[in-house]
Amino acid sequence: AQKSLKEAYKDYFPIGVAVSPRSVAGPEVELIKQQFSSITPENAMKMGPIHPEKNVYNWKDADAIVAFGEANGIKVRGHTLCWHNQTPKWFFTDSLGAQVSREELLARLKQHITDVMTHYKGKIYAWDVVNEAVPDTGKGIYRESKFYQIIGEDYIEKAFEYAHAVDPDAKLFYNDYNTESAVKRNKIFQLVTKLKEKNVPIHGVGLQAHWSIYEPTQAELEESIMQFASLGLAVQITELDVSVYPKEHERRQKKEGEGSTFTPEMKQKQAAHYKMIFDTFRKHKGAITGVTFWNVSDKTTWLDNFPVPGRKDYPLLFDQNFKPKKAFDGVVNF
Ligand code: XIL
């Protein structure tokens, strides 16, 4: 019989997958149990879903995912405590609709982090504390988010401090995408270097790894892994998928006839790319302490219709019938 992902990588790092309350109760369950040793709630622990109104928490969805993990011996990664997306408006406004003060926003951030992490204390081995705080381009290293505008740059260190105070055993991560582009990578590097210098309790950097069959190159990938590891930080691959479309497609309208087909050439290219990626991960065993895929199979991926409406994508190792793809072989056989 063919090895599973988690068997193949048991001496390297846990292999995770992003899940929803539906996916842990639906047709993908067997595949999740068979292949993965870690799960990340795809949306259920984000501010909007879990904390929709002031002092109102919706634990149901995230609880179902954590319970599934516990019942099946699968570890749970937490995602995410502080992000500019999927955060409700109330978080930044008072009861009259005016923007809250720095002190009030810090108090709310602290309350949020404390409540969520206390609820799951001891059940989550790693948390994405701050997500996507760095801009892709431009001069500065801080994204112009509401957190940054209202609190200032120290919202990031505060978030880590609040988190560490609640659960000193959880590994705390800064998580971001496009970490292979030199510009963005250097910004993130500056940010985490500052945090380390100030003794902020940060333990690792999450590379989201929303890649495509055209990127990154092995050199770019190795450079990011080694650069962050050089600071004594763990590196986790937190949201891996390999789109079959080039990234430039995101920046222009879908062309007639473009997209939604998974050609033999794409399959071949994807298999080769996945092999390169995992060869590289294994080479940096030690620096890398986890690899998580963003969704289970090509049947449902967040990349369907995103960023190009009407376009189907095929970014994972299992096909629409949950069968291992060509790319799977090169990942488990080494
Ligand atoms: C995505 C989810 O997969 C979607 O279901 C949701 O609609 C939007 O968010 N970076 C992140 C993830 O850190 O939380 C995002 O997840 C994908 C990009």
From TrEMBL:
PROSITE patterns: GH10_1, GH10_2
SMART domains assigned: Glyco_10
Enzyme Commission numbers on file: 3.2.1.8
Domain GH10: 1-334
UniProt xrefs under SUPFAM superfamilies: (Trans)glycosidases (SSF51445)
Reaction it catalyzes: Endohydrolysis of (1->4)-beta-D-xylosidic linkages in xylans
Keywords linked to the UniProt accession: Carbohydrate metabolism, Glycosidase, Hydrolase, Polysaccharide degradation, Signal
Active site: E239 (nucleophile)
Protein family: Belongs to the glycosyl hydrolase 10 (cellulase F) family.
Protein's name in the database: Beta-xylanase
